[in-house]
Design a protein that fits this description.
mainly alpha, Rossmann fold, 2 domains, two-stranded parallel sheet, 2 strands
Length: 168
């Protein structure tokens, strides 16, 4: 492999790395090798954390790590190979008061409806705010600006909506 030297450097457990490569390039294999090497440097497997973006990637990595461990059945439940969402949820469970959640958050696979709801709330708040609180033109203070202090462009842009989408 022409990137063999880079892959070897990524196995150096004294350094941190970001691994970016296209699908099928061997990222998971490299990360599994690094995880296994890190396991040899700690007393407890819980000291190592591997974070992925998808459940599928986390499951695949866990499967490959367990396949290589002679004592897999004994420590499988102690391995911390999880998605970023699962990691964040675990943090909120550990410090619920600081997280300020009324209940435990849940992981949503498709968050698009939540993004749309959040954006709709922002637009609703912007459209409800009184005109006196309208944003000021950044050019109003500069010499030669012909616009009045509350910029017409800012006033005209106060009504916001999603292009090509209906917000209910």
């Amino acid at each position: 492999m022409k990137d063999a030297a880079q892959r070897e450097r990524a196995l150096d457990v004294t350094r941190s790395f970001i691994v970016q490569a296209p699908a099928g390039s061997g990222k998971t294999d490299l990360l599994v090798r690094r995880f296994l090497k890190l396991l040899t440097t700690v007393k407890k497997p819980e000291e190592i954390l591997a974070i992925t973006f998808t459940k599928k990637a986390a499951a695949e990595m866990r499967k490959r790590v367990l396949k290589e461990l002679p004592n897999a059945a004994e420590i499988a439940h102690r391995l911390r190979i999880q998605t970023i969402d699962a990691f964040c949820a675990a943090l909120t469970r550990q410090v619920p008061v600081l997280a300020r959640f009324g209940a435990q958050p849940e992981i949503i696979e498709d968050a698009r409806p939540l993004y749309k709801e959040a954006a709709a709330r922002v637009f609703e708040d912007l459209n409800k705010s009184p005109p006196s609180s309208s944003p000021r033109c950044s050019r109003a203070a500069t010499a030669g600006c012909a616009r009045p202090a509350p910029c017409r462009r800012a006033q005209n842009s106060r009504r916001l909506s999603f292009p090509n989408e209906r917000v209910s």
